[in-house]
Structure formats: structure tokens, C-alpha cells
Amino acid sequence: DLHAPGLDQIFIVCMAMEDWLQAHPKHVLVLHSRGDKGQLGVLLASYIHFSNMAASADLSLDHFAMRRFYNDKLSTLMTPSQKRYVWMLGG
Questions:
Q1: Which PANTHER family does this UniProt record tie to the protein (predicted)?
Q2: Domain that includes residue 41, residue range
Q3: Residue 1 lies in a domain
């Protein structure tokens, strides 16, 4: 399925990711895709935008590393509609 997930689904996943990471400083996220890596890119890029709305200064380097990974590895795999959803979520 090459379609971007719905904005409501993206928001729910971003909230769950944020809640998990904020619950304990040693919590990490592992994202896995059995198929379309473009959808994984949508979720990762959406979370980067989402978390910047509530990010603290000490997380800025982590966000930079995530952004670099997205730009280098995932953005080329995404369809235009998937990229559009990411930017829509980012406001």
C-alpha cells in the first residue's frame, strides 16, 4: 500500500511515541516496516515535526540526527502524497 496513512492515524502514533519516550529517559523507539518504507518515512518525519512542537533544548541534537537519517535514507522512498502529509502535520 503506497498511500499515506490518515492524518488522524499519524497523530495517534505520534502521541503514542511521544508518551513512550517521555515516560522514562532510557526509553527508545524502534520502527520496523515489513513492506513500504515510504510509510515508515511518513511516520518518522511526522514524529520529527510533532516532537519539535514540544521538544526541549537538550533533545535538539537527537532531532538533528533523526532529520539527517530521514533526508539521507527515507525521503527518496516516499511518494509526493506521503511527503505532503508529513508537511501538513508539521503545520
A1: TENSIN, TENSIN-3
A2: 7-90
A3: no
Q: Which residue has the higher pLDDT, 33 or 10?
A: 10
Residue 19 maps to a domain = yes
Q: Which residue has the higher pLDDT, 83 or 2?
A: 83
Tell me if 2 is assigned to some domain. Answer: no
DSSP SS3 for 29:
coil
Q: Read off the pLDDT band of 84 (50, 70, 90).
A: confident
Question: For residue 38, what pLDDT is reported?
Answer: 75
Whole-number Å distance between alpha carbons of 48 and 83: 13
* 47 lies in some domain: yes
Task: Determine the Cα angle at 43 with ends 48 and 2, to 5°.
Answer: 145
